[in-house]
Specification:
Helix content is 40%, strand content 16%. It has 354 residues and is α/β, with parallel strands linked by helices. The protein folds into two domains: 7-28 and 255-352, Aspartate Aminotransferase, domain 1 (Alpha-Beta Complex); 41-253, 3-Layer(aba) Sandwich (Aspartate Aminotransferase, domain 2). The protein has a seven-stranded mixed beta sheet, with helices on both faces. Strands 10-14-13 form a three-stranded antiparallel beta sheet, with no helix packed on it. Strands 1-12 form a two-stranded parallel sheet. Strand 5 (141-147), helix 7 and strand 6 form a beta-alpha-beta unit. Helix 3 (53-63) runs parallel beside helix 9 (241-252).
């Protein structure tokens, strides 16, 4: 069996630390001042054999579902892996979008599944096309994996397209796994795609600036969340209790944290939009998340530009090769506004020098 790998994650962990980082896609990290109840919550003892009950209840209340619709995990990536482990067996087919976030197909391959790609096209506004997914369906397809907002472009799938994809999957006896880790921005509203055929995954990472807590979850029908919990028995049993306790504190402050995140988005998104509008050598589909995925209008490989930007200006963006889109690069703009301004200025200088 081919060893499963995630080249993007290997790069993200091992790359040099830049002066200005527009590659990491997490929101500006919270400090302890953002969680005033954190100190009182730090207790080591406890257990959570089926998920830490106060945390499960907080997640369920946030999304208006029952507790048995919730399965917790270590981050959204952990939730994605456990959901796939619950839904596929070796030799099954898993349909995955391209371009996409490469830990998703890597997780399917690690479980012994065959990955079947379907295309999301720049020319279609990165639309999640139900007809394209229907054509990619195979007799052994068990899961369709998508992101909404799309990683790397930040484009939101429409409700109509998701419903149509759900019908395609259900007709073929498959489920739909929707990674919705960017969904709570920019609308400032809790949302999730839940039905008997859908599994929604999310975390406190991208929209809340709490990546270090590694708090993730899956929302699904009770029979699927039960299978996810059984898969977790084999992987890591349960999350660290201190992390779960702090995550409960975060949910107690979730509206305020979302307001903080929304403020960053409202400050930063217009800067990125104005910058891209003024660069005729780039073209880009508008984003609904704190990431954007421009490409060179002439189709050139963006790799040399990305390297030059880091080497000469100390600014990091993600090369599009990690998303099978070499003419693109991904800019993350969920960080400090001043750093973003300086980063965009450096990108402009680097483009001018081409």
């Amino acid at each position: 069996m081919t060893r499963a790998r995630s080249p993007y994650m290997e790069w993200a962990k091992g790359r040099p630390r830049p002066e200005i980082d527009l590659a990491g896609s997490n929101l500006l990290a919270c400090t302890q001042d953002d969680l005033p109840g954190a100190r009182d919550a730090l207790e080591i003892e406890g257990e959570s054999p089926e998920g830490y009950v106060p945390l499960v209840e907080r997640i369920a209340a946030r999304y208006g579902v029952a507790a048995d619709n919730v399965a917790t995990a270590v981050g959204c990536s952990g939730a994605n892996f456990l959901a796939l482990a619950a839904l596929v067996e070796a030799g099954d087919d898993v349909l995955v979008e391209s371009p996409g976030y490469d830990p998703l197909p890597a997780a399917a391959r690690m479980l012994g599944a065959n990955v079947v790609s379907f295309e999301r096209r720049f020319e279609d506004g990165w639309r999640l096309d139900p007809d394209r997914i229907a054509r990619a369906m195979t007799p052994r397809a068990r899961v369709v994996v998508v992101t909404s907002p799309h990683n790397p472009s930040g484009v939101m799938a429409s409700e109509a397209d998701l419903e149509a994809i759900g019908r395609v999957a259900e007709k073929n006896g498959a489920a739909v796994l929707v990674d919705e880790v960017y969904l709570d921005l920019p609308g400032g509203r809790p949302a999730a795609t839940i039905s008997p055929v859908f599994v929604s995954t999310n975390s406190l990472t991208k929209a809340y600036g709490l990546a270090s807590l590694r708090c993730g979850w899956a929302l699904a029908a009770p029979e699927i969340t039960e299978r996810i919990r059984r898969a977790r028995d084999v992987v890591d049993v349960w999350s660290p209790i201190p992390s779960d306790r702090l995550s409960v504190v975060a949910f107690q402050e979730i509206d305020r944290l979302l307001g903080r995140a929304h403020g960053l988005f409202l400050a930063n998104a217009p800067l990125v939009a104005a910058f891209l509008l003024g660069r005729p050598e780039l073209e880009c589909v508008p984003s609904r998340a704190t990431i954007v995925f421009p490409r060179f209008h002439d189709g050139r490989d963006a790799g040399p530009f990305v390297e030059k930007l880091l080497r000469e200006h100390g600014v990091a963006v993600v090369p599009g090769t990690f998303f099978d889109s070499p003419s693109h690069f991904r800019i993350a703009y969920g960080g400090a506004t001043d750093s973003l301004r300086r980063g965009l200025s450096a990108i402009g200088q680097c483009l001018d020098a081409l």
